[in-house]
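Q: What would this complex look like in 3D?
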Amino acid sequence: MQPENCSENSQLYRFLAENGMINVGAYGFPAAMQTLCNPSPTSYNSSDYHFESSVITDMTPQDRALAALKNHKEAEKRRRERINSHLDKLRGLLLCNSKTDKATLLAKVVQRVRELKQQTSELSGLETFPSETDEVTVLSGEYSSDGQLIFKASLCCEDRLDLMPDLNEILKSLHLKTLKAEMVTLGGRIRNVLIIAADKDHSVESVHFLQNALKSLLERSNSSEKSKRRRILDRKLIIQ
Amino acid sequence: MQPENCSENSQLYRFLAENGMINVGAYGFPAAMQTLCNPSPTSYNSSDYHFESSVITDMTPQDRALAALKNHKEAEKRRRERINSHLDKLRGLLLCNSKTDKATLLAKVVQRVRELKQQTSELSGLETFPSETDEVTVLSGEYSSDGQLIFKASLCCEDRLDLMPDLNEILKSLHLKTLKAEMVTLGGRIRNVLIIAADKDHSVESVHFLQNALKSLLERSNSSEKSKRRRILDRKLIIQ
DNA sequence: GCCAACACGTGAACC
DNA sequence: TGGTTCACGTGTTGG
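A: Here is my prediction, written as structure tokens for the whole assembly.
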């Protein structure tokens, strides 16, 4: 039996120690793993538990490796807890029994998100005429077969001459293509519904940028027009 | 060094084998783990690789344990894949980069589900007057501090004398308490909005039962009233 | 005893 | 390097 590298022996050492096959120090592992890297042919037992490296410094490379392992172990535990806490929140949100298993839960989440997207799409998609309330709606579609992301954006606000130029500027700067545009004006207000395509390489960012850009466009529009309007009822921002 | 049980030694054997410290058969592990349970004091190496148990039967207890381990390993892999595939679907649904880590993804999912619930609640909650379309809407709230589940249910259909008794019967049979009830009638139609509390012990089931009960109530209502109505435009069922 | 689901600790990969 | 994330195989528990 000739060990090939130190890693294997540190594993072996740990294995033996954890299973009580050799005695270990208070913490669990001594700083003697180094000695195992060039092991003497004697058997591993507690009588070999003497080493010279530990007298040189308090923090031998072995101790440091050990501390790293401990860190790693704890970090991993925190990671698991973080994930599980989110899963628990989802259980609450979906009214799932706390003992619903993870896979089933996630399947339900997928289904629910699809339903909700569908519902908001239907509920908010019915509007074609401008409303009294200012609205920015970005309904994210999914990726088309050719890798483009197709989605729908709706903007409802006061009509003004430079709205379309502003809108075009935004779309151009984000490298978004307008596949289709509907606009309806009524009583000084306008509703703009755009079908937009984004190249796959910067699609996600573009969607978020567009949301923010439209939102700020709407705010700009509001602040400049506020004096003219008798009332701004509300502001809706729908992000699907 | 006296091993305490067989499990430890099978672990040890596996450890040694996996790290090439002893030779193993074609599959990976020989059927010799039993011999390790009462080990001879000699060292573990390939020269000890002879055993009598395997000649008795093809399926020794060791082989069966081995097969079970293999099963277990593969089942666990399938489970991981199942979970991860759902996570990937969620990544697609949320337009997340494929390298968004699990915890962050799940945090976004939680946030998104909350947003979507909020939006559908707002979008569908605006209606107070009865619509032309028959509707059952159950908007699930979350658990209150005292463990009760509070949620909102809305029902819109033809008005009829025995609607309220039917409704009360349903709620009573499901042990649901009505905290608040709004009802608006207009042109022979009625909209009923109920705030309902369910005890925690059978809350989830009750919500689903209620959904089904209201749905069938609506269908019953329709079939008996169909002749009187000139048109039933549509039927909406919203479940949040 | 089997099966399914979980938490755990660890090695590997990526910054 | 250290920090962080992932997949993996395993021990364990409940049905």
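A: To summarize the key features: Residues 1-56, 229-235 of chain B have pLDDT under 50 and may be disordered. Residues 68, 71-72, 75-76, 79 of chain B lie near DNA strand C (CB under 10 Å from a C1').
Q: Very helpful, thank you.
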